[in-house]
Structures are given as C-alpha cells and as structure tokens.
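Pipeline run #58 for the internal structure catalog. This entry was flagged by the ingest filter as a single-chain record with no existing model, so it goes straight to prediction. Upstream metadata was stripped on purpose; only the residue string is passed forward. Reviewer on rotation: M.T. Logging verbosity set to normal.
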Amino acid sequence: MAPKTILLCTDFSGNSGPARDLAVDYARTFCAKLVILHVIDTWAGFPAYEGRIPIDVGQVVRSMESAVTDDLTAMAKQFRSVVGEVETHSRFGAPAQEIVRLAGDESVDLIVMGTHGWTGLKHVLLGSVAENVVRTARCPVLIVRPDTPAPD
C-alpha cells in the first residue's frame, strides 16, 4: 500500500534530519501529502505552573509558538518545490499523544520520525517518544536513526 498522507514529526534537532529527508523522499516518490508536526512538550506541568513562576509564562509560550511557526513555515516552503502538498501543525502537550492524535485526525498512512537513540538512564528518565508512538499509533511508524544516510 502506497501512503497518501505522511506525517513527519520534527523537534528541529540534527537527529530529526535523516527522518526529514526520508519523509520528503517518500512523499515525492508516492505523490503523498506531507504533514509536518512539532509538539512543544508540556512535561513537568509547563505551562500549568504559570501562576507560580515569577516570569511572564504567556510571553514565553507566545515566543515559543512564534519560533515554531516560523521554522515550520520555512520547512514547508522548502519542501513545496519537491512535494506538492505540505501542511504544518504545532501543538502543546505530551509529544507521543499529540503525534498519535494528529495522525488519527489527518488519516495519516505513515508516521516518520527520528530518535535520539538514548539508552540506559537517559532512556529511563526521559522515555522514548518514538517507542510510545510505535506502541499506540494505528498506522505504520518508520523510526529513523540519526546516523541513517540520506536517500540518493
């Protein structure tokens, strides 16, 4: 089955680069719509502690949203020359939950995402978004390691 809609999950890190390249290549090859998502992680209650933090959390959130929107807009512009249809989304929440939720909302056929490849204590403490997405998504998930070479 050729995917008609591909969801690229990005955290804008270098680790997400190979996943980005592969998702764009798949979208071009299969003439699929490319949906790009960045989730601003609300781990540890942020921004729920807004009233207890002596900074303007609203300003911080607006600034984060603006930066994410700018980065997603730039990505979409770059990819539209290669892939016909590109759509972007940003969300606040637990990344794995928001990825799976958007995949369902957009009837995604394939989720493509990178992994940090953490093991040991980092994995235990920080968890694995990729692992949680694989366990809960209703569509195939392609996990791309950071050392995966770009497609030719």
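catalog note: The chain has five helices and five strands.
catalog note: Strands lie at 5-9, 33-41, 86-93, 110-114, 141-144.
status: ready for reviewer M.T.
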